[in-house]
Amino acid sequence: MVLPLPESPVSLLLISAQPSDLSSLTTILAGSNWKLKVRRNCDDVLALLHHYHLPVIICDDESTHGSWQSLLDDLAVLPAPPALIVSSRLADERLWGEVLNLGGYDVLPTPFDRTEVLRVCFLAWQFWERQCDRMRLQAAG
């Protein structure tokens, strides 16, 4: 199976205090056009978004400071908020339903699976790109 990858470099932010998540994601993304940025918590993510183009964020559901829910609220004020993917060791239908109902993009179980990470991140990036295209069309028309 050919896994989809962006043709040009795309930044992906991981928010996690779990060293195993960072190690796994680094290995999965090695040699791809995904450029990984890392934060241990949600504290300075909005400031980071002013300096980097971050279309996709993966946030651990147990991040030490802040929560994926409050991050999602913070991102909602942006004109083109990044697609938020929640990662969890306890990924289940309840969490998936909560993430989608609150406006998140998807849930990734940990430990990360290479195929699933690349598929979900690529689709999240495409979703974000379509949002940006719609905004550009609205601004032009």
Describe the structure.
By secondary structure, the chain is of the alpha/beta class. The protein has one domain (10-140): 3-Layer(aba) Sandwich (Rossmann fold). The protein is 43% helix and 19% strand. It has five helices and five strands. The protein has helices at residues 19-29, 45-49, 68-75, 93-102, 114-140; strands at residues 10-15, 34-39, 56-60, 83-88, 106-109. The chain has a five-stranded parallel beta sheet, sandwiched between helices. The chain is globular.
Task: Detail the topology: elements first, then pairings.
Blueprint: E1 10-15, H1 19-29, E2 34-39, H2 45-49, E3 56-60, H3 68-75, E4 83-88, H4 93-102, E5 106-109, H5 114-140
Parallel strand pairs: 1-2, 1-3, 3-4, 4-5
Mind telling me the C-alpha Rg? 14 Å
Please give the largest β-sheet. Answer: 5 strands, parallel
Question: Based on CA inertia axes, which overall geometry fits?
Answer: globular
CATH topology: Rossmann fold
Mean pLDDT over the full residue set:
90
Number of domains: 1
Discrete helix count: 5
Please state the second-level CATH architecture.
Answer: 3-Layer(aba) Sandwich
- How would you classify the helix and strand content by structural class? alpha/beta
Strand content: 15-25%
Strand order of the largest sheet: 2-1-3-4-5
Give helix % range. Answer: 40-55%
* Low confidence ranges: none
Name the helix and strand elements from N-terminus to C-terminus, one letter apiece.
Answer: EHEHEHEHEH
Number of strands: 5
* CATH homologous superfamily annotation: Response regulator
Q: How far is it from the N-terminal to the C-terminal residue, by CA?
A: 40 Å
* CATH class label: Alpha Beta
